Amino acid sequence: MIAGLRKSVSEKEQRIAELGTQVDTLQTRVTGLSVEIENQQQDLAAKQHELATIFYAMGTKKDLTRSGVVAAKGGVLGIGKTLEPSGHFSETVFTALDTDQENVIRIPSDKAQVLSAQPITSYVIQPIGKDMVELHILDPKEFRKIKHLVILMT
Q1: What's the number of CA atoms in the CB half-sphere (13 Å) around residue 34?
Q2: Alpha helical stretches, state H, the chain
Q3: What mean pLDDT value characterizes the chain?
Q4: Phi first, then psi: what are they for 37, rounded to 5°?
Q5: How far apart, in whole angstroms, are the C-alpha atoms of residue 114 and residue 25?
Q6: What is the pTM of this model?
């Protein structure tokens, strides 16, 4: 009976050692997966930030034309030309804005006009005082479909 008990204890000790090894392996795997999940969350956060970021430039007609952000197109003999984003501009002229963090752009002018193709229902421009208006982004998802916002201050 004692020999049987010793054999049983020996088998159980061996099984405990095997289970200890399995626990160590599983803990290593859990640690690896935790690191992988953290890396994926950081990647997702970076991608979300990239998706939420738009770039805006604002200025007078003269400033925007000089910097190459807009060009006068159409019209006859120089009359009736309209300003449109040129599509060929330096990124240094633009300011980044994360639309997940901010949804208001202050414009130091008494009037402003959006020249880029943002959906008209995705924003509103409101006066907030003398020589100051604000562009409020109402629908960030729609608004940021166009990554470059051009604001003409008049």
Answers
A1: 6
A2: 2-52, 61-66, 140-143
A3: 92
A4: -65, -45
A5: 59
A6: 0.74
